[in-house]
Design goal:
The protein has about 190 residues and is of the alpha+beta class. Helix content is about 25%, strand content about 25%. It has five helices and six strands; from the N terminus they run αβαβαβββαβα. β3 and β4 form a beta hairpin.
C-alpha cells in the first residue's frame, strides 16, 4: 500500500476519494414529518417538485442523506469539518434534499444534492437565518435546481444571509438573483 495509492486526503484510496455515490431514499423517508412548518401556518408554501425538507425529526435515512451531501461539500471545498450532524444526528438545522425519481424503482428517490439553513444569533448584529452550504452533484449543477427553490427559500426564511466563504459559482448565482435581499455586509459584519 504505497502513498501513490492513497487519496489526496488521508488514508482513503484515490478511487474512493474521487467517487460520488449518491444516496437513495424510499418515498417514506421523505414524507413530511409532523413538524413546525405546519404549526407556523406555512402550509401555503409549496416546495418545488424536486425538493424535500429535512428537519431534526425527519426520518434518519433523510438526515443521513443530508450528512452524505455535507461530506461531499467538505471534501470538494476542503473544509475541516462536516457542516451537518454526524450521520444525520442534527438538532437545529433545516436542510433540503434535491431528489429525482429513480427510473428503476418509482418509489425510490435518488438524492442529487442538499443545502442547509440555520438560525444564527450574534451579539454584534441582528439574528437571522443563514444559508450555511449548498452542494449539488457536479452533473446536476447549472440545471436550475437552486433557482427553482430560491423563491421558496425567500418566502420561508425571509432576508437570509449566505454564509461565506462563497464559491465563485455561488457568488455568480447571487449576483443573478437581483430580487434577493442579501444582507449588507459592508455595514454589518457577520462571522
Amino acid at each position: 500500500d504505497s502513498s501513490r495509492d492513497r487519496g489526496v486526503r488521508g488514508a482513503m484510496p484515490q478511487q474512493e476519494y474521487f467517487s460520488i455515490k449518491l444516496p437513495l431514499l424510499s418515498e417514506r423517508a421523505c414524507s413530511p414529518p409532523n413538524n413546525e412548518i405546519h404549526e407556523q401556518n406555512l402550509r401555503e408554501l409549496r416546495l418545488p417538485h424536486d425538493l424535500e425538507i429535512v428537519l431534526p425529526n425527519s426520518a434518519k435515512a433523510a438526515r443521513r442523506a443530508v450528512w452524505t451531501c455535507a461530506r461531499f461539500f467538505k471534501r470538494e471545498f476542503d473544509y475541516d469539518a462536516v457542516q451537518y450532524g454526524h450521520e444525520g444526528d442534527e438538532d437545529e438545522a433545516h436542510a433540503y434534499l434535491w431528489t429525482t425519481n429513480n427510473e428503476d424503482a418509482k418509489t425510490t428517490q435518488l438524492v442529487l444534492g442538499a443545502c442547509c439553513f440555520r438560525w444564527r444569533a450574534w451579539t454584534n448584529v441582528p439574528a437571522c437565518w443563514c444559508l450555511e452550504w449548498v452542494w449539488l452533484h457536479p452533473f446536476q449543477r447549472h440545471r436550475g435546481h437552486l433557482t427553482s427553490a430560491w423563491a421558496y427559500f425567500k418566502k420561508r426564511y425571509g432576508e437570509f444571509y449566505p454564509m461565506p466563504p462563497l464559491s465563485s459559482a455561488m457568488q455568480n448565482f447571487l449576483e443573478k438573483q437581483k430580487k434577493h435581499a442579501i444582507k449588507d455586509t459592508a455595514t454589518q459584519e457577520y462571522p
